Every structure is written in C-alpha cells, then in structure tokens.
Amino acid sequence: MFNFIKVGFIALTLILTVSAVYADKHPEEIGNKDCMECHVDVTPDAVKQWEESAHGFTGVKCGVCHGDEFNFSKIPANTTCRGCHAKQVENNFMADKSCAMCHPAHTFTVHKQKDYR
Amino acid sequence: MNVSRRDFIKLTAAASAAAAAGISFPEAAQAQESADVEKWVKGTCRFCGTGCGVYVGVKDGKAVAIKGNPDAKTNFGFLCVKGFLAFKCMYHPDRLKMPLVRQKNGKFKETSWNEALDLVANKFKYLREKYGKDAVAYYGSGQCTTEETYTFNKLWKGGFGSNMVEGNPRLCMASAVAGYISTFGSDEPMGSYSDIESSKCIFITGSNMSECHPVIYRRVMRHKMKNPDVKIIVCEPRRTSTAKIADLWLPNDPGTDLAVFHAMANVIIAKNLHNMDFINKHSRITTGKDVVDFEEYKKFLSQFTPEAVEKLTRCPADHIVKAAEWFATSGATLSMWCMGLNQRKRGMWANNLVHNLHIITGEMGKPGADSFSLTGQPNACGGVRETGALSHLLPGTKPVANDKWRAHVEKAWNIPAGTINPKPGFHTMLMFEKLGGEKDAEKPIKGMLVSTTNPAQSLPNLHKYVKGMQDSFLVVLDIFPTRTTQLADVILPAAFIYEKGGVYGCSERRSQLTEKAVEPVGQAKPDLWIAAQIAKRMGFEKLIPWNGNDSMKANEQAWTDYITVTKDTEHTLWGATYDRLKKEKAGIQWPCPSVDHPGTERRYVRGQDPMFEHPAEKDHIPSDATIYFYADAKKEGKLNLFLRPYDGPGEMPDKEYTFFLTTGRVVEQWHTGTMTMRIPEIARTHPNAYIELHPDDAKQLGITAGDMVEIVSRRGKSVMPAVITKGTLPGVAFVPWHDQAMARMINFVCNDVVDPDSKEPEYKVAAVRINRVSGPKDVADKYIIDDVNAPFA
Fold it and tell me: Which of B321, B642, B712, B784 is the most buried (most CB within 10 A)?
C-alpha cells in the first residue's frame, strides 16, 4: 500500500513538474514542420477530435490556438479565444479561469450567445 | 529514465488533459483578460470578400489584437486565422516607411514625400504630353478602400480623360460582373448570406469555400449540422475540404463544367421539374443574338444527356441526375461560386449557366434561393465594381460607352461635357501587354501606378509581362517589398487599412466602415492622400479637393462625392452617409435610398427592394408585379435565359502536356503572401508552394511524397515538392499560388488566354507536363522579399 502511494506520488510529482516546466514551451523543435506531421502519430485522438470539430471543418488549425514554438501555449489564453468568441469570453462568469478549463481538449462544446446578458 | 521524443509528447499531452480537467494549471495565468487592450476600434477584415466585422484592439497607440464583431451580419463574431492575426504583419520590420526612388545605379534611395510626389506628377505630365492622354495607366485593387478607388478612377477618367483604369478584380470577378449584367441587367447578387440559413439545397461550384471563404463556409457547415436533410452538392475537379460536408460530389475535368450545368438543366426539364410559370413570366430565352422559344431551348439541351456529358467531363451521369433532382425539388436552392467559374476562358458563360438553373426552377426571389457569386477580395464589389473602376465602366457599374450615364457623371463631377472618353481603355492583360519603355514604339502605355496589388507575381503567363513593367515608369503603392516593387521606379509607402480607415463593400452588397485605429508606421500615407496629392500637383485640385491630412475627413469627402453620383441608381447608397456608417455595427446593404432605409436584403422583390418605389424605376414597374427585374436593358423586367454552346478551356492536355493544372488558395495564405507570410503562425502552415497529385499519377510518374517535381507548360515552368492525395481526379494537378520564391511562382506556368466577354484570364486551366527532378528537398523556407534592392530573380 505504502509503495503504491509512493509510486503514485512520484508519478504525480513528475507529471506536475513536467507540466510546469513545459507549460508554455513546445517540447520539441518544430522547425519548418506542420504540427500535423507529428501529431497524427503522437496524439491521434486529439487530431481525430479536432478533425470532427467545428474548428477542424473551418480550418482553425493547431497554430491558431497554440501558437508556434516561439509563442507556444499549451492551453490557449482567453485572449486567443476572444478573437472569434468575443461575446462568450467577455460574458464569462468565471473570468479568472481559462476557457479551456471547461471546454477541454478539442471537442469544443459551445455557449449560445442568447444564454448571456 | 529513457523517454523517446514521441513518448514525451504523449506524456505532455496526457498532462495537458489532466490539467484541463482541473488538477494542475495555475488558472489565473491562463486567463489574461482585456488588460492587454486599451480600446477596441470597429473595422472590417483586411482579407477575403466575406466582409467579416472586426474590432481592432489598441494599446499604446499600436494595434495589438483583433476580435470578431458579434453584431456583424456577415460573421457573427467569427474570424479565420488570417483576419484574427492580421495585426501581426502591421509592425513587421519589412514595412515600407519612406518614399523610395530608384537611382541610376539601380538602387533605391529614400526621399521626402514632396520630392517623390513631384517626381511622379512631373513624369506623368511629361508622358501624357509626349505620348497622349492614355500613356499613363492606373492598376488598382479590390483591397483598396472605396474612397481610394473612386478617387483614382475620378482622377483618371474625369481629370486625365483616360479610361486606362483597371484593377485586379479583372482577374477575379470580371466574369461574375459580366454574368450578372448579361443575365440580370445589373451587377451583384439578388440575395444575401442570410439565404444560407434558409436554404434546403446548396450547390457549391468553382469554390473551395472552406479555405477561401472559411467564415461563410462555417455558416454552411452549421446549417448542415443543424439540418442534416439539407443537401450539399459540390461540383469541382478536386475533392476539396469543402466537400467534407457534401452529400454529393460532381467531379469534372477543369473547364468542362458548362456541359455539366447544361446536363442538369436537361434533366430538370426532361423530368418535368422545371417551373414553366416562372420561365414564362420572368425570362427571355435567347442565344445572345436572337430570342427563341422554350422548345428550341429544350431541343438545344437534349444533346447534353448525362451519359454524353460523363464522357466529355468525367462527371458520373447518375451524380448529374441526382444533383438536378435535388436542385429542382428542394424548395430553396442556393448556388455559390467563386474563382473556379470566373477565372476561365468562358467564365461569363459559366456564370450565365448557373443563373439558368435558377431561372428554369424558379429558385430565386425567396428565402434560401439565390444565384450568389462569392467575391474574392474585401472590396472588389464595393470598391472596384460599384465605383466602376475598370476600363469600360463608370460609377454605378455602368458602361463608359453609355452616353446618358457619361453625361450624368460629367455633370456630377462638374467637368466639361465630353471630358470622359466614350471608348473603353485596355483590359488588364492588354494593358500590361501594351506597357513598356519610351523607346518601344509598340507599347503605347509608358507609365503605370499600381496600388495594393502585386502583378509581377499575380499575372498569368508572367514571363510575357515582366519586361513591360521593368521598362516603363512604374510607381508602386504598397506596405511591403514585393515582386512588383522590384520592378518599380518609385515606391510609395502605404498605410494599412487600420491606419487610415475607409469603406469596404463585400459580396452581399454590404458596405462597412473601418475607423482609423492607429497612426501609420514611419512616414506611410493613405492611398487617398497620395492620389489627392498627385491630383493637386497635376492641376486637378478642384476635381479631387480632399487632400488634407485627416484621413477620416478625406474619406468622408470622397465617399459623399461617390454616393452623390450613384444616388438615383439601383446601386444607391444615398442613405449610407458616413455618419451613419460610423454608427452602424453591421454596415448597410444597397440599395439604400434614404437615411431611414434599413438597407436591402433581397433585390427585385416588392416589399423588400426599395427601387419598386423609387422614382428612377417606379414608373415602369407594373403595379401588380411582386418580382420584377427592373434592370433589364430591354425594359421588359425579364432575365435572360441563355443558350450558350459548349466551349472547353483554352488548352486541353495532349501528348506533350498531359495534365490539367489548376491553381488556388489555402486558408492561411492571402494572394501573393506578402502579408500572411509575415505572420509566423501562418507562414509555417504553408511555407512553400507544392503540387498535389493523385496517387495513380504519382505512381505512373515514379513520384513519391516530397519529391521535387517540375511543372512545365507552353509558357514557363516551376519546381516544387509533390503532395500525393486522393483529393483530386487522376490527371488533374493543383498548386497554391502564394509562394514568392521565383522557382515556385506558378503564374509563370498559367494561361493568360482571356474570356472574350469578361476579359478575365483562365488561371484555372492549363495543360502541363510533370516530371520528377529529384528526391525530397527542404524548401520550407517561408520565402519573402525582405530587401527592396533585391533583383527580380
């Protein structure tokens, strides 16, 4: 039991450390590659979700939200979402939270504007 | 711990998912709010013809963000990547900041504005005096503001008495203009984007709207998602990303779709799905010369059986039949097209034949039913088409050859009768063909002012036209060094749209005002100021009095002058005063005859179109007419239903040039990439041109993905990497045209044969030979011209 907790604790620490260090840094040099060149292999589920999403259909590709290796953002800032979803961002009742906290990954549920003030 | 590269990415992706679920990320750090912006300034997107409403975020006097305008009727707040990131190119170090004059050693030298403008004005005066009033041409753009285009047009036609006025909409929209005028009698669509949400069948042809009009495509996609029964038909040589939502793909060889449209009409009539009442009431069946009866039209169509057309076009016969049935029976069919129909040797006919389908089915004049041309550029409609800034037009999209209208414009401009030349000037391709140096007696045009466009990259069959630009006195207004500035004698640094303000008019007859948000960089100036300063120096200050330094004030003067000229036409924007445009969050659709009129969503329908009550039209519209095509040149209120014979492209593949080549855009890149290639996030997605080949063709040619491939036509060649995709027909290759690298500029290869009616060149079809030249090379260099003194090489 103790070993299980210990291993779990180490694993969680590792994940959080890695996340903190690389929160806004792409772990690989992107060079001149298109994001999809690697990500169809390494994160196929995310790519599939994106392909079937509104963003996928309308050409809102990886770099639009995540930037490139020089301004990489693992979780897009709300200022990024604001570009297309201004009313939703400005009506966010939890302005201190990231949009991505409630609209995870690439499936993108949407708020209807009529739901807001 | 040995973590491979891929495992590492997987690990961080998992961490990301965990974070998104709320267990690790510092929340506040992710949620930067509007502290980054001091004020938001209303505007319109700089790029395509959709006309997306935007707000430009300003901080410390600089544009720092762009967000969509949720109140805009075009985009409801959504933007594509270009519009969203446009501000990033505004402060690129390559921005042109000072006037530049080429010296005897071939290098450019910075000068003052006074020196540069005096030089331009004096040289133009000299050339006109020595070689005649048509010796200096203007070549503008569907990306200039309406005020700018109107002003240059007025200066040339009303001041110089020359119709040597053209613009790049000749290369993109001229066939749509000719199509609307020949069928409807008046340019631009009957309906609006709002027809998308009311439609039950959408026929998309000659348009990859998912990449070229992504925000309109979003509306189509949302409509289809909410209403799965809505039928989407895509008629294209390529199975584009637009076809992802299609119920039916009608593939066809490039340039052969006239036969497909006729075959659909044939099926509709053969199956008795046509609307005889609408045809009788609202159309005149004509060959273009003679009026014929319905039976003759039916007989003409009978040659276009689906089976015969399949042999000619490779479009499956059963697809043609299904498309015809859906088109005729949906209850609300909307067609949308763009360059695929326009940039063709028979572009006007292709436009006519789509209109035909709507006429024979009566699918127009009601919600969801329209024959709607998408415009490529943000102000091709408002700026160039509506102000008549082509060599054969005057404001109101009316011909210079029309005596009555010419006299009206002369009176409105307060210039002597007979000043405006009744003879059209040269169309774009002829203009560049006739452009050359003073020593070349074969070239009557000796000087040219080019604004906001890049013909030294964008003209087809480019080799033919470079020397003329190089030898002539070429003045270029732009914001960055381009292939065209490399050939210029004088470069005048222009202000970006958000540095000057102005009106853009989009595809749906909607004019929207952009406020000036920030000051121009360096000494860059608005085109309007440049035009007015040249006019002043050439003795036309009375004609163009808006030469002050306040750009919004000058814009307002020019706009008011323009809407006065077209006040009593079906294009009227008389109610769209500058004050009102400033207040309107979503702009105004013409006709808008008075300040209390809301604008017009649908033309030619009583109760919706104010022209039914307007003194200019009211008297000849029957009082019981609910739909009436009052712009009909014969004054019968009818549309022309055309019998157009089949005609293929200018060249077909043969033994030597075995492939069709077609060109187009990709979502991230705009035209010649001068702006978008300077936005890092965009540049990376398509850092170079490439050729798409079908796997069968690639196999036969021994080409694998990434191999370098040579594309050769009768006119030139390009070399670029291959992309193997099933998204095209075998035998059809595709290349995007944004790349500035000389070896990959595909317009050296493209065909410059023009439509005999619209004079638009056939970018969309060329016969080419394709050879593998080597294995893969890294050419993802995001090439841009960053040195004004770099040679055209």
Answer: B642
